[in-house]
Structure to design on (580 residues):
C-alpha cells in the first residue's frame, strides 16, 4: 500500500474500531437480549465497513460489493433466527432479561 | 462431480418440501439414503465417482473445489454421525412436525459441512460456516424448550461474534493480498509475513475457529448448548458441527494458508493442552450425564488441536484419526444419553444406578465407548492417542506428550465414576420398571460399538486397505 492508501486506511480505521468498541461494549453492558443482538449487529457493521474499505483500497470494488451483498443476506437470516429465539424466550419467561436465563449452570 | 456433495442434499431438501402428498413421509428415508451414499462414496474411494473431473456446476459458477485425504475423513465422519443423529431423531423427537423440521435442518447443515470440506476460498468458507451455524442454532431450540432456548441464544451470540472476527480477518487479508482464494492468500501472507496487518488478520481468524470448536478459554457456551439440546442434536453438535466448522476449518487454514509458523504452533499446542486438562477436570465434578460428555468433548478436541499444533505428518494423521474416533465414540455416548433420557426421563446421574441389569446393551456399549475415549487398547481411541503422543514425543515436545498421557488417566477417572454411578452396582430402588431401548436405538448402539471395536482391532490391517486411513498415513 502507498502513502495515501495508508492515510485513508487509518482515517476509516478509527471509525471501524469505534464501531467494534461500541458493539462489544453493548454486548457486555446490557442484560436485555435484544440490545445484545443490536450490539452484535453493530459489530458486524464494523466488519462490513472494513470489507468495503479493503475493496476500495485494493481496487477490488466489484469483489467487495459481492461480498457485502452476500453478507447482508446472511446477517438478515441471523437476525431472524435470533429474533425467533428471543420471541420464544419471552413467551417462556415473560421477559427478555439475561438475568432470568439461569437454568444452565455448572 | 464433487459438487454432488452439495447439490444432492440441496435437491433432497427441495424434494421433501414439495407440496406433494407423501413427500414429508419420504423425508427420513431420502435423507438416510443420502448419508449411506456419502459413506459408500468414501469407503469405495478410488472409484469412478472420484475420477469424474468434469464438474458443470463448479465450472459454471467458477468455484474451485479440491479434495485431499483429510476431506475424505471429514466426509466419512459426516456420513456416519449424520445417519446416527437422524435415527436417534426418528425415535426420540416426540412431535411429527418437529421431526420433519429436524430432518430439514439436518440437510441444511449437511450442505454447509460438505461445502466446508470442499471449498478453497476464505469468504465462501465464511458463508458456509454461517449456514452450518444457523441450522445448528435452530436445531438446538427445535423443541422450543426453555433451557434449549437459553443454550441456543448463548451459542448464537458467541458464534456470531466469532463470525464477525473471522470476517474482519477476511477483510484484512483482502487488503493485503487482493483476493480470498487459498493459493493467492497463502503466497501473499508468505511475502509480507512481518506486516502488522498479517499478524492481526491471523490472530483474528484463529479466534473464530477457537470459539466455534469450544477450546478453553472460549468454551463457555459449549456445555450449555450440548446439554440443553435434544440428544439427537447433541450427537450432531459434538460429532460434526463444532468439529467441522471449528476444528476442521482450523486444520485446513493452518495447513494450507497460514502455514506452521512457530507462533501458531505454540498457540495451538498451548490451547490444546489447556483444553485437555481443563475439560477433564471439569468433567469429574458433573452430575448431568450430557454435561459431563460436553466437558469430555472439550478435552478430546484438545487432543486433536495438540496433534495439529505438533505439525508433523504423523501428528496430523493422529489428529485426523482422532477426529473420526471422537465423532464415533461421542455419538455412541450421546446415543446412550438419548436412551436414558427417553426411558428414565432424566439425565441426572444421582438418580441412576445399576442400570446394566435393566439395559444390558446400553450399559455394555457405553462401557466400550468410554474405554475407547480413555485410550485403552485395543479400542480405536488408543491408536489415535498413541499416534499423537508418539508424534509429540519424537518431535521433542516431552512436556506436552506427558500432559496428553496423564490426561488419559483423568479421562479414565471421570468415566469410571460415571459408570459406577450409572451402570454398575445394585439397581437403585424405583428403577425396576426401566426397560431396554427400542430395536432401532439398540441396533444403532451396537453398530457404533462394532465400528469402535473394528477400527481398534483391525487398525494395523486397515492401514493398508481402507482408503482414507491409508492415504493420510502413507
Amino acid at each position: 500500500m502507498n502513502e495515501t492508501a495508508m492515510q485513508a486506511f487509518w482515517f476509516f480505521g478509527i471509525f471501524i474500531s469505534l464501531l467494534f468498541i461500541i458493539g462489544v461494549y453493548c454486548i457486555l453492558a446490557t442484560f436485555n437480549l435484544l440490545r445484545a443482538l443490536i450490539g452484535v449487529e453493530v459489530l458486524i457493521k464494523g466488519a462490513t465497513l472494513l470489507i468495503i474499505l479493503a475493496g476500495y483500497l485494493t481496487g477490488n470494488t466489484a469483489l467487495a460489493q459481492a461480498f457485502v451483498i452476500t453478507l447482508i443476506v446472511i446477517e438478515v437470516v441471523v437476525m431472524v433466527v435470533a429474533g425467533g429465539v428471543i420471541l420464544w424466550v419471552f413467551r417462556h419467561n415473560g421477559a427478555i432479561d439475561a438475568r432470568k436465563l439461569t437454568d444452565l449452570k455448572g | 462431480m464433487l459438487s454432488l456433495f452439495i447439490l444432492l442434499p440441496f435437491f433432497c431438501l427441495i424434494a421433501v418440501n414439495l407440496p406433494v402428498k407423501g413427500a414429508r413421509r419420504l423425508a427420513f428415508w431420502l435423507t438416510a439414503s443420502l448419508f449411506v451414499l456419502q459413506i459408500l462414496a468414501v469407503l469405495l474411494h478410488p472409484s469412478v465417482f472420484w475420477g469424474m473431473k468434469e464438474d458443470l456446476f463448479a465450472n459454471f459458477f467458477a468455484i474451485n473445489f479440491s479434495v485431499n485425504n483429510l476431506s475424505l475423513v471429514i466426509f466419512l465422519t459426516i456420513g456416519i454421525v449424520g445417519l446416527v443423529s437422524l435415527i436417534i431423531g426418528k425415535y426420540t423427537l416426540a412431535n411429527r412436525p418437529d421431526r420433519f423440521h429436524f430432518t430439514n435442518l439436518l440437510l441444511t447443515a449437511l450442505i454447509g459441512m460438505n461445502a466446508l470440506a470442499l471449498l478453497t476460498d476464505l469468504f465462501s468458507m465464511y458463508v458456509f460456516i454461517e449456514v452450518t451455524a444457523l441450522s445448528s442454532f435452530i436445531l438446538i431450540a427445535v423443541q422450543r424448550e426453555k433451557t434449549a432456548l437459553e443454550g441456543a441464544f448463548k451459542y448464537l451470540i458467541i458464534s456470531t461474534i466469532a463470525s464477525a472476527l473471522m470476517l474482519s480477518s477476511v477483510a484484512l487479508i483482502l487488503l493485503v493480498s487482493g483476493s480470498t482464494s487459498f493459493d493467492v492468500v497463502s503466497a501473499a501472507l508468505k511475502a509480507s509475513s512481518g506486516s502488522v496487518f498479517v499478524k492481526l488478520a491471523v490472530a483474528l481468524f484463529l479466534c473464530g475457529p477457537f470459539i466455534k470448536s469450544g477450546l478453553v478459554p472460549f468454551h463457555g457456551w459449549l456445555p450449555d448448548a450440548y446439554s440443553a439440546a435434544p440428544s439427537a442434536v447433541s450427537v450432531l453438535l459434538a460429532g460434526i458441527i463444532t468439529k467441522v466448522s471449528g476444528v476442521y476449518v482450523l486444520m485446513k487454514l493452518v495447513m494450507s494458508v497460514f502455514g506452521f509458523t512457530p507462533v501458531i504452533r505454540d498457540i495451538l499446542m498451548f490451547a490444546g493442552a489447556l483444553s485437555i486438562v481443563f475439560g477433564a477436570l471439569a468433567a469429574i465434578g458433573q452430575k448431568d450425564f450430557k454435561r459431563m460428555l460436553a466437558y469430555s468433548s472439550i478435552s478430546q478436541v484438545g487432543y486433536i488441536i495438540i496433534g495439529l499444533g505438533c505439525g508433523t505428518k504423523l501428528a496430523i494423521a493422529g489428529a485426523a484419526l482422532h477426529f473420526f474416533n471422537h465423532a464415533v465414540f461421542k455419538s455412541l455416548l450421546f446415543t446412550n444419553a438419548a436412551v436414558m433420557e427417553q426411558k428414565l426421563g432424566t439425565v441426572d446421574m444421582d438418580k441412576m444406578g445399576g442400570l446394566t441389569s435393566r439395559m444390558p446393551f446400553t450399559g455394555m456399549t457405553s462401557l466400550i465407548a468410554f474405554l475407547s475415549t480413555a485410550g485403552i487398547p485395543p479400542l480405536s481411541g488408543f491408536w489415535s492417542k498413541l499416534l499423537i503422543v508418539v508424534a509429540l514425543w519424537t518431535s521433542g515436545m516431552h512436556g506436552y506428550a506427558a500432559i496428553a498421557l496423564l490426561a488419559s488417566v483423568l479421562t479414565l477417572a471421570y468415566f469410571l465414576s460415571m459408570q459406577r454411578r450409572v451402570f454398575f452396582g445394585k439397581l437403585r430402588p424405583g428403577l425396576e420398571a426401566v426397560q431396554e431401548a427400542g430395536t432401532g436405538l439398540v441396533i444403532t448402539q451396537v453398530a457404533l460399538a462394532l465400528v469402535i471395536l473394528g477400527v481398534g482391532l483391525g487398525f494395523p490391517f486397515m492401514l493398508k486397505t481402507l482408503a482414507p486411513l491409508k492415504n493420510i498415513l502413507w
Remarks:
- The domain at 3-100 of chain A is CATH 1.10.287.3510 (Helix Hairpins).
- The radius of gyration of chain A is 18 Å.
